User: What shape does this take?
Amino acid sequence: MDNCIFCAIAEHKIPSEIVYEDNLVVAFKDVKPIAPTHLLIIPKEHFKDFLEFSQSPKRAEISEALMHAVNTICEEQGIESFHLLNNCGEAHGQSVFHLHFHLISGVDLTKHIKF
Ligand code: AMP
Ligand code: ZN
Assistant: This one.
């Protein structure tokens, strides 16, 4: 999609620190990390948010690829404990409207949030 920064990253049109890539998924370092490990995992295909993605006929195949990416990254980087976070919608903090999951490790966010 035009004018989408994460599509541009997935297409290698703008620089980013990619840590994982396969035919369906890319993972790269967040430009403003809030923890020692702060990665963004995205499908290469553009979905504006989790809800749009969850209605796609490709959701199963891409979900599997996203999980495989998380697993591979954790194994490669020796990560055993982390948050996997999606902000869906502007009212809940989403600022880039291309589906992404934050993989955050090294800071326990539950210490700052009371569930
Ligand atoms: P969210 O607020 O959940 O939509 O998260 C968007 C995230 O994208 C934020 O943590 C930003 O720091 C990050 N971000 C925005 N632009 C870039 C970029 N060009 N490269 C890497 N991360 C980015
Ligand atoms: Zn996009």
About this structure: The helical segments are 5-10, 50-54, 59-77. Residues 5, 16, 30-32, 40, 87, 93-96 surround adenosine monophosphate (ligand 1) (CB under 6 Å).
